[in-house]
Amino acid sequence: MIATEGGHRVTPAELFFDLVFVYAITQVTALMAADPSLLRLLGGGVVLALLWWCWCCFAWLGNVVRADSGAMFAVLVAVMAVVLVVTVTVPEVYDDLPGGLYAPLVFVLCYGAVRVLHLVTYWISSPGDEALHVTLRRTALLSVAPPFVVLLVGCAFTGLTQVLIWLGAVVIDYSGIYITGSSGWRVASPAHFAERHGLIVIIALGESIVAIGVGVSGLPVSTPVLAGAAAGLLVVAGMWRLYFRQISEPAEERLTALEGDDRTRLARDAYTFLHLPLVGGIVLTALGMKKVLHQVADSEHYGLSEPLHGVVAWALAGGVGIFLLAAAAILLRTSGRVSLVFIIGGLACLAAGVLVVLVPALLALALLAAAVLGLVVLHSRRTGSARQVRHNADRQTDRHDRTRPPETGTGCGQVCDADQAFLVSQKILSIWAM
Fold it and tell me: Would you call 222 exposed, middle or buried from its count of C-beta atoms within 10 A (0-12, 13-18, 19+)?
């Protein structure tokens, strides 16, 4: 296996690996849509958390070992095969169909296999790294074995009991990572690590777009359907803009600035942990949009004035709310900055989720699109000035270096006049941008 270097970026092998998680996220959305109840939303969240952990394990590993090397690529393909089996069983993890294999048990066994493959591959790829080996042993004892046993116990139950037992396994798993600490783990390439998480966010956003199409599948296209699809796309575009312009950039900058255990802890907190609710919020929003488009398209059973019902109504706006609050938490952890726009917007969306049942479904989606775009504009105005100042400072430094006058003083007046004119023009542009 080949170790990565500081400038390592995402490889095509990792993009190929992510394809199986495209299907996984789609299956989680379908699991919740099949029985849109509070219990099923909680159960879907548990399944998403387990699948997220499978993905995170190899995002960390791919940061220190090249995924396109022969041995590592073979491991990735093997993991893809196991995760594919996990994903196929998702629709039956809480309601096993008669005949065939017992889906919950298959799910748990394959999940355990992924975790073991991760630890074994990490061990083999780090000969002589005793600090990492100690951490791997502690991880196996605290964060892999106990949750696996609890998940197995949960397979003997159904309904609320199964969901709560599996939720307990997730809590044990995630808590174990904090208990084992950050010693031995490392992030060799911050750019690669940030890019990997950006790509999984894009996959989740892509599932939202797919959900729009699935919602109207097999139903006639109409003007309300087109309007709903456009509104849904605006919601997705707004979430993309908020993440990649307001969250991803400062998070990567901070991750790059840190070293050693400080970098590892930030990667664990801001990316491994806080990106989960962010992706979960996107999945919930996708569920809501899927139901809106289906209801708008199915004019035989629903009228345009009919609102969404049940937890799906809350999921539409509540998903955006969770996304925004997770974004605020990421900003706070990476830059120490409190984003009132994200916090207030997130809380407002959570509250608005309760009110969605009072307005027509299509109108609710349109209002959500307007709210998300409003947040984009508002947050861009609040942060745009600071970004412009940094950009101008960088340009001015570069310009000054290239046009530095000779020390004898010849030509100084012309250069200084040019710099003054440049500064004035940039100031005007900055004021106009505000």
Answer: middle
